[in-house]
């Protein structure tokens, strides 16, 4: 399925919706990759523009390992320190929300649908990002990489979010932008919808058979239709 094509209706009315953060709710994936690229150029590292895309959807440790393998430990640490300082300033100013996220969250809150964040970002940075972007009040539960032993694509953070909401994993809808996050949701036994940002799903990702939406604006009608049909199904 290509973004923009007809999306299959949801087979159930979700009891909870779990959200990735970076690249899905916040335009942070684009922001951090720009910071990486500028830091690399300033430090004299000649890396292709698409090199940074492999870091989208991964945790801090994975990013550091990728850079260390390419540049060495010392150079990786220097690049991360430089890019991190610039990114921190962006976060403090408030990274813009992705189109459609506020309307979606408002509708879910108005309809008392439980919500949680399940992100590869660690705390306190994750909560700070949400707070500065004005999205924190929509989430009674925020689960981060700081809360689990294994990051995505392991299912840990999604299973923790479902547990804290008191909802069975099979009744959870997950919204993700990255293939890594989609695999984590599937491993948790949940139903994901991928809303790609910088990284479009490749052949292997599409073979997973999940729903793919071009934007968050396409997700809201799916939820509205699923919830409207719920009484008849019951």
Explain the overall architecture:
The protein is of the alpha/beta class and about 230 residues long. The protein contains 9 helices and 6 strands. It has helices at about 30-40, 60-70, 75-95, 100-110, 125-135, 155-165, 180-185, 205, 220-234, and strands at about 15-20, 115-120, 140-145, 170-175, 190-195, 210. It has a 6-stranded parallel β-sheet with strand order 3-2-1-4-5-6, with helices on one face. Strand 4, helix 7 and strand 5 (about 190-195) form a beta-alpha-beta unit. The chain is globular.
Summarize the structure.
By secondary structure, the chain is an alpha/beta fold. It has nine helices and six strands; from the N terminus they run βααααβαβαβαβαβα.
Q: Element order, helices and strands?
A: EHHHHEHEHEHEHEH
Q: What's the rounded overall pLDDT mean?
A: 92
Question: What's the Cα radius of gyration?
Answer: 18 Å
**How are the strands of the biggest sheet laid out side by side?**
3-2-1-4-5-6
* Structural shape: globular
Query: Could you tell me how far the N terminus lies from the C terminus, measured between alpha carbons in angstroms?
Result: 30 Å
β-strand amount:
5-15%
Q: Give the biggest beta sheet.
A: 6 strands, parallel
Low-confidence stretches: none
The strand count comes to: 6
Which structural class matches the secondary elements? Answer: alpha/beta
Share in helix: 40-55%
Helical stretch tally = 9
The oligomeric state is single chain
């Amino acid at each position: 399925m290509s973004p923009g094509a007809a999306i299959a209706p949801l087979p159930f009315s979700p009891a909870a919706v779990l959200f990735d953060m970076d690249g899905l709710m916040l335009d942070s994936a684009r922001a951090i990759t720009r910071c990486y690229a500028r830091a690399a150029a300033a430090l004299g590292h000649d890396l292709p523009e698409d090199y940074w895309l492999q870091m989208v959807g991964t945790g801090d440790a994975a990013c550091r390992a990728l850079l260390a393998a390419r540049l060495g430990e010392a150079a990786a640490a220097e690049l991360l320190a430089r890019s991190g300082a610039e990114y921190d300033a962006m976060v403090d100013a408030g990274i813009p929300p992705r189109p459609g996220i506020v309307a979606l969250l408002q509708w879910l809150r108005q309809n008392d649908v439980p919500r949680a964040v399940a992100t590869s970002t660690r705390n306190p940075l994750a909560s700070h990002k949400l707070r500065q972007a004005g999205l924190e009040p929509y989430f009674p539960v925020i689960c981060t990489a700081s809360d689990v032993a294994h990051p995505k694509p392991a299912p840990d953070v999604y299973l923790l979010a479902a547990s804290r909401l008191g909802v069975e994993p099979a009744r959870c809808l997950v919204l993700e932008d990255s293939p890594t996050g989609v695999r984590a949701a599937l491993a948790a036994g949940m139903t994901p919808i991928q809303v790609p940002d910088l990284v479009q799903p490749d052949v292997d990702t599409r073979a997973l058979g999940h729903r793919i939406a071009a934007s968050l604006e396409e997700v809201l009608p799916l939820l509205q239709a699923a919830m409207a049909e719920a009484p008849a199904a019951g």
